[in-house]
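STRUCTURE REQUEST FORM
Protein name: Branched-chain-amino-acid aminotransferase
Source organism: Nocardioides jishulii
Requested output: structure tokens
Priority: standard
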Amino acid sequence: MEISTTLTDSPVDDARLAEILSDPGFGLHFTDHMFTVEWTPEKGWHDARITPYGPLTLDPATAVLHYAQETFEGMKAYRHADGSVHLFRPEANAERMITSSQRLALPELPVDDFIQAVEAMVKVDERWVPEGEGEKSLYLRPFMFASEKFLGVRPSQHVTFMVIASPAGSYFKGGLKPVSLWLTEEYTRAGRGGMGAAKTGGNYASSLIAQQEATRHGCDQVVFLDAQEGVYVEELGGMNMYFVHADGSITTPATGTILEGITRSSIITLARQMGHEVTERRFAIDEWRKGVESGDIVEVFACGTAAVVSPVGELRSAAGTLPAPESTETTMKIRSALVDVQFGRADDTFGWLRRVL
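Status: completed
Returned output:
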């Protein structure tokens, strides 16, 4: 793409930026610029630009506001000890956005263009990439939405792709701790033939009421079961799940109606390299209960871009409380292996890192 760049006249000053980067939180502060490119059937992708970060002006009839035709991605840029900045598997995010776009009847942004857009944002706002201590990083949010002014129900004939960025601190303030889970038996996240495998806002919107249910029961996250039989574990509101067995093997729920996370696939690869047999299959809630009670399941953990890897604590449901397995040994080894690659503390034997600066 030919990308034009218009720099802001009022960047965040150095003192304020240092204050932000010392305790960035998550999704609270945004960098000085944003990337935009537009699509129409006649012109394809065009008018790629980096401009000062600011509000969008949308007509009340903009299609995305009515029919939720949109997709997004979540990824991070990491600063290594030598000052260099790297992306982690950006081509996987680009490919997943293509899959999501196909499901949402949106145009496909080519992988190279996706990566170019993300890299351009990191380069122009490089000073917003924190030092890596405390697992700080620059969170990047590419997203695509139906921007045509039209109320007819059909795929939008004008689409906008954007990238914004936000410095992020550790997901766990005060240190890593197990997340407690609530098993919802009333709500499901997605069914066969639905949008569960696409990264689109509607999936997250549908999970919010179940998350409220979890919060009412004093839990951090909600667990969804499959929509067809209400038997098989799928995923959490925003994280994939793993079960570690006493023999060292690991099971993770199969995809199809759930989002296939980049972190999820990276963990499968790392775990196999570490000597674990990893199986992707349907995994029943009763197998979880019986496995913990019998000692066959010795660890449960979850993963996602923001939290990376988190041990899972107790499981609560209308049937009672299932205590968490005591061990987190395998969980923490896998977590360390992944984070060490991301921050350049371990060899990148899989070629996952892409140097930007």
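Reviewer notes: The domain at 179-342 is CATH 3.20.10.10 (D-amino Acid Aminotransferase; Chain A, domain 2). The chain is about 25% helix and 30% strand.
Form closed.
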